[in-house]
Amino acid sequence: MSTALIYSDEYLKHDTGRHPEGRERYRATLNGLMADEDLWNSLVKLDPRAATDEELLQCHSARVIARVTNACSQAAACDRVSLDPDTVVSVYSETAARLAAGGACRAVDVVATGKADSAFVACRPPGHHATAGQAMGFCLYNNVAIAARYAQATYPEQIKKVLIVDFDVHHGNGTQDIFYDDPMVFYYSLHQYPWYPGTGAADERGVREGEGYTLNIPVEAMTEAEDYLRKFEWGLESVMKNFSPNLVIISAGFDAHEADPLGQLRLNDESYRRMTARLKEAAGATGKSRVVSCLEGGYNLRTLGDTVRAHAQELSS
Q: Catalytic pick from 60, 129, 171, 311?
């Protein structure tokens, strides 16, 4: 299988200072991929593009875009501005955020047109906490949500149903919020609970036409990898019994790793490899193996590169 890598040094210009979601995470991610020379040489390397206002507005209010843009303009005079206690922007952050969302859209183009079977978007800032009405939790724009809407709008004959699988240690409240009443996008999340941001209880299942198209599996702190993987498998089988996606998008957070400072779960590199393999199988079950993976969390700089590499190796195997 061929795998595309969407990446750019432009993501380094999102300067958060001394912050868990810092530029060093991006360097660790790319260094991890480059450490396997065969993998690195096999990847189809592409630049991201900036998401347009029209694409952002499919998932976010104009107020969100204006607030991010204005805060970044203010940062020109004072280096950084905080949108909330967790979310810091600098003068270039809005541009980087558009490239993150647009990079996810470019990944959709790659798999939809058959140029690659899968794509990994090595981007920052992450996105899954950004709701329709608020940037939060290190996230400015919701990269996976924007990619899902873009896929449906741009390739309506090929991609009607999208499955978003989120294995970040934190619940993707923003992604859930955007698709909570939508039966054409299934949101499936496993996450530590209770934990930031406090959402993601098992009874959060969607509303109106979207009821039953959200599946949350709350996981207790210190859950071992095999127990987590059993829950993951049960949830994925439940999803696939009633939903046939034309595209699988992964919110690839690696902070459920046993060494991560922002989580309390017990996954290891092999856990991510096994989940990636199962998601590839799920994507292929409906006839087209289209998988787009977007970097979310993962904050241990010593282990992140190895874990990302395991994920990418499995994507491309």
A: 129
Q: In angstroms, rounded to a whole number, what is the distance separating the alpha carbons of residues 127 and 186? A: 17
Over residues 281-316, the pLDDT tens digits come to 999 998 678 999 999 999 999 999 999 999 999 999
Phi, psi of 133 (to 5 degrees): -120, 5
Q: Can you spell out the DSSP letters for the chain? A: --EEEE--GGGGG---SSSSS-HHHHHHHHHHHHTSHHHHHHSEEE---PPPHHHHHTTS-HHHHHHHHHHHHHHHHHS-EEEETTEEE-TTHHHHHHHHHHHHHHHHHHHHTTS-SEEEE--SS--TT--SS--BTTBSS-HHHHHHHHHHHH-TTT-S-EEEEE-SSS--HHHHHHHTT-TTEEEEEEEESS-TTS---TT----GGGTTSEEEEEE-TT-BHHHHHHHHHHHHHHHHHH---SEEEEEE--TTBTT-TT---BB-HHHHHHHHHHHHHHHHTTT---EEEEE-----TTTHHHHHHHHHHHHH-
- pLDDT at position 65, please? 98
Containing structural domain, residue 162: 3-316
pLDDT of residue 287: 66
Q: For residue range 98-121, what is the model confidence (pLDDT) as tens digits?
A: 999 999 999 999 999 999 999 999
Residues 6+ apart with CB under 8 A from 209: 181, 182, 183
- Whether 191 sits among the annotated catalytic residues: the reply is no
> Which residues neighbour 70 within 8 Å (Cβ) at sequence distance 6 or greater?
none
Token pair recorded at residue 35: 């450490």
The domain total for the chain is 1
**Residue 11, token pair as written in the block:** 């993501």
pTM beyond cutoff 0.85: yes
